[in-house]
Specification:
This protein has 415 residues and is an alpha+beta fold. It has helices spanning 3-12, 30-45, 62-76, 94-113, 124-137, 141-144, 168-178, 194-205, 209-237, 249-258, 260-275, 282-293, 368-371, 403-409; strands at residues 21-25, 49-56, 80-85, 118-119, 150-152, 158-160, 238-241, 244-248, 300-302, 305-310, 313-318, 327-328, 337-340, 347-351, 375-379, 382-385, 396-399. The structure holds adenosine-5'-triphosphate. Residues 25-27, 29-32, 54-55, 102, 120-122, 126, 185, 188 line the site of adenosine-5'-triphosphate. Pfam families: ATP_bind_3.
Length: 415
């Protein structure tokens, strides 16, 4: 399949038509530049239009010039282009932090310009390398299958990777024919990076990227089927009380006896929906399962969540120490909360925290520790309302999504 045909197939197939205005994330590397050229061919033969963004993470001085080069290429071809500048700091987990910040910036950009989907230039080579990297770490089904072709994130932004079945080498031909030299990121050749080391090892072994990518696709299909089944199960066994997820005692017992792995995955899915963090390590998962099996102590915290067993069952909710800072009124707070009501100057949304003592929370359905993590609407620092703690004022709250919906969406932990 040609790269342009791969784009057409994605729009006509998995994306299901429509999508008149889309976005493309172009780093200036060979794959995303080839994506840009192929997408332009596609757009010219359909009535679609698109816009391009390049993220400068603020980490390498050369990145400014690289972003300008992409801007110049777009200007020559009459394509709208934006540079999104971030200010990341060096330090631990740099690659993961850069990736998260990049997706967040691209997501905001796409929302602002009403672009859907945002196309990314991952190729078959990336799929093969990622699979081997993950096999090496001993991850399970869900981890091995984590490179979906398209998905919609919790904000409703759709992302797509049209080139997952296209070899990097085929893309280099497109660039050569167009007389374009990609920007060579020196880290792409640096064997200290695991991905580069694996790329070189695969070439030496002569392993076929196409075969590895096919295995990754089979695993993705299996993971999808399993997640659909888990989502159905989540609908049956979880009760959502405002924002808390409660696994009723009898269901917890039944699952522990008959399908303990489903119990583990359901609890992890609940943690991910509430806390929005990556899957906890195996030893932390064991701590969670041990607590659920024998909830002797008052509760545990894990992955940005608090887990407490009471008469009703296993209750999972946000950990107070992990609540994000206040945001301006009108924005989504802590990934899940929407607050509606009259706008006024100086209004913010943040965790209720110690102000809980100003509310009649005892009359509500949430325990104190959970109510403290629900939204407070404040004006210049003074509490106006805390709808989930019995002080609604003129405000209404809504919790976005559910564990089951998140499982069905299978939002990836990004590559
Ligand atoms: N700085 C960036 N600005 C815009 N998009 C980016 C950026 N970095 C990565 N992307 C997007 O994510 C995809 C995969 O990222 P990855 O880091 O594997 O690519 P790369 O080696 O930087 O460049 P390329 O994939 O273009 O050869 C890119 O193809 C591109 O669509």
């Amino acid at each position: 399949m040609t790269p342009a045909a791969a784009i057409a197939r994605l729009f006509d197939g998995p994306l299901g038509g429509g999508h008149r205005r889309f976005g493309i994330a172009v780093s200036g590397g060979g794959d995303s530049l080839a994506l840009l050229l192929s997408a332009q061919t596609h757009a010219q033969s359909t009535d679609r239009s698109f816009r391009v963004a390049t993220v400068d993470h603020g980490l390498r001085p050369e990145a400014v010039e690289e972003a300008r080069q992409v801007a110049a290429l777009c200007a020559e071809r009459g394509i709208a282009h934006d540079i999104l500048t971030l200010a990341l700091r060096d330090g631990p987990d740099l690659q993961a932090r850069a990736r998260q910040a990049r997706y967040a910036a691209l997501g905001e950009w796409a929302a602002q310009h009403h672009l859907s989907p945002v196309l990314l230039g991952h190729t078959q080579d990336d799929v093969a390398e990622s699979l081997v990297m993950r096999l090496r770490r001993g991850v399970g089904l869900e981890g091995l299958a984590e490179m979906p072709e398209c998905w919609t994130d919790a904000r409703g932004q759709t992302w797509a990777r049209p080139f997952l079945s296209i070899a990097r080498l085929a893309l280099r031909d497109i660039l050569a024919r167009a007389g374009i030299t990609p920007i060579e990121d020196p880290s792409n050749e640096d064997s200290r990076f695991e991905r580069v080391e694996i790329r070189k090892a695969l070439a030496m072994l002569g392993w076929s990227d196409a075969h590895l990518a096919r295995s990754a696709r089979h695993l993705a299909e299996a993971a999808q089927a399993y997640n659909t089944r888990l989502a159905d199960l989540a609908e049956d066994v979880f009760v959502t009380t405002v924002s808390d997820v409660v696994l009723q005692t009898e269901h917890a017992r039944e699952l522990a006896a008959s399908e303990p792995d489903s119990l583990r995955r359901l609890l992890l899915a609940a943690l991910a929906w509430i806390g929005g963090r990556a899957t906890p390590r195996a030893d932390e998962q064991k701590r969670l399962l041990d607590y659920v099996a024998d909830p002797a102590t008052g509760g545990i915290t894990l992955a940005g969540c608090r887990i407490m067993c009471d008469a009703a069952g296993v209750r999972l909710f946000r950990e107070e120490a992990d609540c994000p800072p206040e945001v301006k009124f009108g924005k989504v707070w802590d990934r899940r909360w929407l607050v509606e009501g009259p706008v006024a100057p100086g209004l913010t949304i943040g965790a209720l925290g110690r102000d809980i003592d100003q509310t009649p929370w005892r009359g509500g359905v949430l325990p104190r520790a959970s109510a403290m993590t629900t939204p407070a609407i404040r004006q210049d620092g003074s509490l106006l309302a805390a709808p989930a703690a019995g002080l609604p004022g003129a405000y209404r709250i809504k919790v976005e999504g559910s564990v089951a919906a998140a499982l069905r969406r299978r939002e990836p932990i990004f590559n």
